[in-house]
Design brief:
Beta-Lactamase, 4 domains, alpha+beta
Amino acid sequence: MSAATSRRDLAPKRTGGEVARLVSEVAPAALLGVDDAGVVLFANTAAERLFGYGRGDLLGRPISELIVSMRDIRAGMRRLRTSPLAWALARTKPRSRAADLADVADGVVDAMACRSDGTRLAVEVAESSALLPSGRPVAVAVVRDLAPRASALEHALSVDERVQAFLNTVREHAILLDSDGRVASWNSAAERITGWSADEILGKPSSILYPADEVARGRPQQLRAAAASAGRAQVEAWRVRKDGTRFYADVTLTALRDEQGDLRGFAKVTRDITARYRSEHHLRFCDQLTYVLSSSLGSYEDALRALTRLVACDLADLCILDLVDDAGELRRFDVACADPRDHAVARAVLRLAPTHAGAASPVDVARAGQARLFATVAPDVLAPGSQPAQPVGEPAPRSAVLAPLVARGHTLGVITVIRSRSAQRYDDIDLRLLQDIGQRAGLHIDNARLYKAAQDAVAERDRVLGVVAHDLRNPLNSIVVRTDVVQSTLVPRSPTGDAMRLALGRIHDTAMHMNRLIEDLLDVARMQEGGLKLEADAWSPGVLVAVAVDDARPQALAQNVLLRLDVQPGLPDVRADRDRILQVFSNLIGNALKFTPSGGEIEVRAWADGEHVHFSVRDTGVGIAPEHLPHVFDRFWQLRRADRRGAGLGLGICKWIVESHGGAIGVDSVVGRGSTFRFLLPAAPAPR
C-alpha cells in the first residue's frame, strides 16, 4: 500500500465531530491538526488554499514538509532581513525568534510555508490545542499568510523611499522636521550646502544650522511658531555650515498636519542665495563708497579715513590703508577695526611699518601692482619681519586680501583687509570687490591731488596777478598824467603839433586800456580774497542806464553802430553800488560793440517785474555757439583765443558783481543773429 493510500486510510480514523466543529469555528485561517509525531491529522479548506495541496495530500504529511522551521532557514532570513520588507516587518512587529514551533514563547512565530508548486510564503503560525473524541490531545497550528500585511508595509516603505528619492533630486536644501524641530529627513542638496551628512544630523535639532546669536534670540522656535500659526513662514537670513562658515539663505517652512489637524512636523526648503545677497550688498557698498569718496574732494585724507572704517565694518575685522608718500615710500596711513575689542590691536598695527617681507607684504603688492588673495592665512604670512604672526592680535588672522590703489598706471597705496573673528573666508568675489575699491580710492586720491594742485596754481596765479597789477598801475598812471600834460602844454598849434597830439592821444588811450585790464586783474584778486567791497545806495535804474549809454555812445558812433535806449517809466529804485553796476554795463556794452559789425544795432533796456528790476543788452552781432554758452562767465575765457582785446575777465567780474548784489545774470544767443545778456537786481524797499 502506498504512503498516500495509507494517509487516506488513516484520515477517517483520526477525525471526529469535535475536530469538524473546531474547523468551522476558526475558518478562514489555515488550520492543521498535528499529532505528537508531527503528522498532519486534519486540515481545513483555507489550508488547502494556502499550501496548494488537496486535503488528501495534506493528511498524513509531516508538518516539517509544510512549515520550515526558523533554524532551517536562518541563513535565508539573514538575507531577507537586508531587504526593505524584512526591515519593515522587524520594526513593525518585533518579537522573540523561536528556533522552531516547540520554542514559541508568546504563542506566535514567523515562519515559511512550503507550497505544492515549490514556492514559499511568509506566514505567521500560532499554536493551539484540541481533543479528539477518543480524548487524545492534538496540536493545532493556525497559519496566516503574511503577504497582505507585508504588501501594505512594503507599499508604505516604497512611498517613503520614493519621497526620499524625490527629495534627493531637488536642487534646494529640502528636508523634514518633526514637531519639535528635529531633523527627520535629509537630502543630498542639504548635505552639499551644509556639509552635514544624513547620519550626522538626523535626529539633531535644526537650530544647529542657525548662527549662535539667532539661537540665543530664539529664532528657530519663533520661525516654527509662525509656520504653525499661519501654515507657512518665509525668511531670508544667515545660516551656518558644519565647518562654521555662513551662507545667506531663503528659508520656507511649511507646517504638516494630519487628517485631524494635529501638527506632525514641518517641510523646510532652504535656498542658498549668498551670491545674490553678496551682489546686492556689494552694489549698496559701492554706493556708500562713492558717497564717502565724493564727500571731500579738497581734503581726501578725511575721505580715506572714512573709507577704512566703512570697509572694516562691512567687509573685514581689520582694514589697513598704506599710502605712497612724496618720496615714493609706502607709509601707514590708517587702521580701522569692526569690533571694539580690537581697538588696541588697531592702534598697535598703526604703529607698525608696512615694510615687512613676506607673501602678504604691502610693499611687494605696491611694487607688483597686483592684488593678492589669501583664503587661508599661514602662520607667518602677515608677520612683520621676524616677529610672530600676531600684528592683528587674537584670534589670529584667518583670511586676507591686499589690493593696490591704482590711478593712471601708478600705484598710490595698498588696502589690506583681514578676517580673524569671522569663520568666513575671502574668495575671488571679494578679491574683485577689493580691486574695485582700490581703483576707486586710487582715482579719488589722484583727482584730489590734481584738484589741490590746480587750486594752488590758481591761487598762486591770482596772487602774482595782484602783485603785478598793483606794481604796474602806478607807472601807467604816470604815463597818463604825463601825456595829458604834454598834450596841453608842450605841443604847439601846428600841423606837426596835431600829428604829435594824435600820437599822444593813442598813447593815452592805450595806457587807459591797460589800466582797465589792471583794474580787472585787481578785481579778480580781490574777489579771490573776498575783499571786493560794495558801497550800496538807492539809485534810479533809468539814471544808471542813461549814464552807461552816454559813456558808450562815442565808441558806437565811431563804429557806425546804432545804440538805442528803452527804459520802462516809473521803475522802482535799486539798492546798488553805482560804480560797480556801471562797470557791469560798460563790460556788457563793450562786448556787444566788440562783436557787432558796422551798421549793426545795440539796445539797452530796463523794466520791472515784481520785486526785481531787469536789465538787458541786446546786439545784432555774430552770436555765440550753444556749446560755448556755459563758459562765457568763466574767468580768462575768450570766444576767440586770437583776440587780444581783453583778458577774458570782464564777464566773470560782471557775474560776481551782480551776484554780490543778490541778483542773477544770464545770456541767450543765436549764431548769426546776435546775443542778449540779461541781469536782474532786487528793487530797493519803498521809503516809508
